[in-house]
Amino acid sequence: MRSRTIRHASVAVVLAAGLVLAGCAEEESTEVQSAGGTSPGEGKAECEQLTQFGDLTGTSVSVYTSIIAPEDAAQKKSYELFTECTGAEVEYEGSSEFETQLKVRVQGGNAPDIAYIPQPGLLASLVRDDDAVVEAPDTVAENVDQWWGEDWKTYGTVDDTFYAAPLGANVKSFVWYSPKTFADNGWEIPETWDDMMAITEDAVSKGMKPWCAGIESGDATGWVTTDWLEDSMLREVGPDVYDQWVNHEIPFDDPQVAAALDRVGSILKDEEFVNGGLGDVKSIATTAFQDAGYPVVDGECVMHRQASFYAAQWEPGTEVSEDGDVFAFYLPTVTEDFGRPVLGGGEFVAAFDSRPEVQAFQTYLSSDVWANEKAKATPDGGWVTANTGLDISNLSSPIDILSAETFQDPDAVFRFDGSDQMPSAVGAGSFWKEMTAWITGQSTADALTNIEESWPAS
């Protein structure tokens, strides 16, 4: 899914994520390119890493992204320090048709200098199919090694070559709840899956519906259920098997996948547990994902599993905080064997040119300096990063703070959204379709077999 936006049918792309596969990337220089002269940022601590690029006054860097108004305002503000440090200007362009138009522009010889890519699969396609992305310079690789986990660097790597540093991020492994409802019923935030299910059963015993859900999303209906399964896979069998599943090293209908989906079904297909304030199990398929959490506020349901970006979906006036109308907790683990798996999404900074000003901007975006500038430029909240150089005190939104703390937890094991890494015929096709059929009555075996049979032969 695009960071902080709804996923669309155009989101997923043809090739699996930028994980290591056979092949050799074209040799490209990763050395820093300098324009020479004295950098405008010379002597300023916050500009220290950028002075090596020289005086970039009079140059510009074009940036193309899916981040549009009003979120783009904070992006642009966060670049002001870069211009002060280097003299280079940033020409920003956001588009709601980013995924489609980026490929068109690249293939038409009109690529931007930099693009923020929301899917590892799209990055891999631009590298392998179009031979268009420039290898990241050493300064970027050094920043990512210092400020990001190895798993994040993997998603910006294609065929053993590192191309794209991570940028923003979102946490999908959250469950939304009403602090008041929990307090009134004496429930504590669950630490384990069994704890969560104990709350579920207690809610039923008190005549309450414990869960509400909705997976309707236009052409992308079903994506919510894929996120449920991905989170369940990480908790049921762990990150290593999850990676094998995403890359089709085990079949989609492997018994381990079936067990994980049945765990999801133990909640979503139980008439006693769903669909609080909305209907029966089948109503999940027709309830818009944007509306599905609303019954939590009114106490008509107890819990709603959805990503951190859902904070923007609550109706105006809803207070999102630990003592407010709604808040979220980490979707608990089934076992301690796999640490604290975190499912999420984010963007990656891909460059199509290696001019000094482009390398300088890549370096800035991969640094702890930019992470904190961006946080300060977003006082109303709605943005977070997994950059560990982020000072969490610079975040203002309670849910952003919780997200950052989740990313920075030393036990956290991050994995990118699985369907965004799969071939589009699966990730944005059969996976969505079959999970919708499954929620309306199709068996686990039939749903998974149908997806397996749809996987492209090559």
UniProtKB/TrEMBL annotation:
Source organism superkingdom: Bacteria
Q: Fetch the PROSITE patterns from UniProt.
A: PROKAR_LIPOPROTEIN
List UniProt keywords, sorted A-Z: Signal, Transport
The signal peptide annotation in the UniProt record is: 1-22
Family per record: Belongs to the bacterial solute-binding protein 1 family.
UniProt name for this protein: ABC transporter substrate-binding protein
Its lineage reads:
Bacteria, Bacillati, Actinomycetota, Actinomycetes, Propionibacteriales
